[in-house]
Amino acid sequence: MRRREFIQGSLAVAAQVGLPAATANAAPTLTIPYGAAVRGDVLVDDYNYRKALIDHCQLIVAEGSMKWESIHPTPDRFDFYDGDKLINFAEQNGMKMRGHTLVWYAAMPEWALALRGANQANSEMSRHIETVVGRYRGRIPSWDVVNEAVADEPTASDYLRPNVWLENLGKDYLATAFRRAHASDDKVQLVINEYDIECVGEQYKRRREALLRIVRDLRDRDVPVHAVGLQGHLRGELEIDKHALSEFVSQVKAMGLDVLVTELDVTDNLLPPDQQERDRIVASRVEDFLGAIFDAARLTAIVTWGISDRHTWVPMYFTREDGRHNRPLPLDRNYRPKPMMEVIERFTRKTG
What is the dihedral sign for C-alpha 332, 336, 338, 340? Predict the structure, then answer.
């Protein structure tokens, strides 16, 4: 995209959604697209946030505004205002947008949590998926269909996370969700998205095994699942099990699925107070994580859960006892690149 066309697009979207225009340089063309989760309220209020997204991202994903409680708050009402705002911003600035998420145990309105019986649950889940995917057909190329299906501590006999869908539909809810999404847009990439796959330890091993079991079952039944999303909410104090992660990705690829990183950040609440040392460790964890994946497969996208330390979910759950700000994302609170961004940019330029 030529610079003049890019700036005109930025101005157009600003006018369309009531945003002051962010004049910025277009994000570089990368071999593997990089993107970030976006909050609609911050997009409106923070000029530098918009500029950072335009400067660095080839795609975005809604942090919360496409989750069920936001987009389908009552049985008879869908609210697409924020979703439309984000996709318009993306398209006017030459970006793609991922969809997140169609089926999850959390961020659910009370009316949906109260669903009872297979008929009611199947009808409402199908209606939701068909309506949301259908609205953005041809505009969103990739959807997180099922998010966090694996139990926190899975066992051989109990490996699926309890939720309203499992309670009413059994494990078939997974296949139903993917089939309804595919029927609503047969060109879109359909992703099963999961966390805590990458670290050393028995719990992570069991979670990898459980996710592979789910994916194999879906593939054996010819369910249209196309990719595994590795969230990548890394723990700064925990080592990446590089060999096990590479082997896991190899098994995913052997089943014919793509792999993408969907929610990358690094919690640093237990890391040393020295800022440079913290940033070094954070970047090292990202290096190990992405390197282990690339040893087995080429990623189709790398997405961080936010772009700047100024706007991140991490302090809500991982506050530092010393009172220092968390630094989990590629840009600092003043939107300056950190070592984590250098690592990400190196991997997004990989050609093999």
Answer: positive
**Which tens digit of pLDDT belongs to each residue from 245-295?**
999 999 999 999 999 999 999 999 999 999 999 999 999 999 999 999 999
End-to-end CA distance of the chain: 25
**How many angstroms separate the Cα of 334 from the Cα of each of 278, 324, 327, 338, 347?**
17, 15, 11, 11, 24
Cα separation, 128 vs 102, in Å, equals: 8
Topology of the domain covering 24-348: TIM Barrel (3.20.20)
pLDDT at 7 over 50: no
Query: Domains of the chain: which residue ranges?
Result: 24-348
- Per-residue buried b or exposed e for 147-183, using 16+ beta carbons within 10 Å of the residue's own CB: bbbbbeebeeeebbbebbbbebbeeebbbbbbbbbbe
Q: Which of 13-27, 77-91, 203-217 has the lowest mean pLDDT?
A: 13-27
Alpha helix stretches (DSSP H) within the chain: 3-17, 40-45, 47-56, 68-71, 81-92, 110-113, 118-135, 164-169, 172-184, 202-220, 242-254, 275-294, 314-317, 339-348
Rounded CA Rg of the chain: 20
Q: What is the mean pLDDT of residues 185-196?
A: 99
pTM: 0.92
Other beta carbons within 10 Å of 74: 11
Cβ burial of 84 (10 Å; 0-12, 13-18, 19+) is middle
Distance CA 249, CA 245 (A): 6
Supply the pLDDT for residue 350: 79
Taking the C-alpha atoms of residue 131 and residue 8, their distance in angstroms, rounded to an integer, is: 32
Q: Is the four-CA dihedral 108, 113, 114, 119 of positive or negative sign?
A: positive
Q: What average pLDDT does range 9-33 have in this prediction?
A: 57
State which H helix or E strand residue 230 sits in: strand 227-230
Element (H, E) at 325: none
Given a cut of 70, whether residue 123 has pLDDT beyond it is yes
Q: Report the C-alpha gap between 283 and 343 in whole angstroms.
A: 7
**pLDDT value of position 29:** 64
The count of other CB atoms within 10 Å of the CB of residue 48 is 15
Q: Of the candidates 262, 252, 187, which has an alpha carbon nearest to the alpha carbon of residue 224?
A: 187
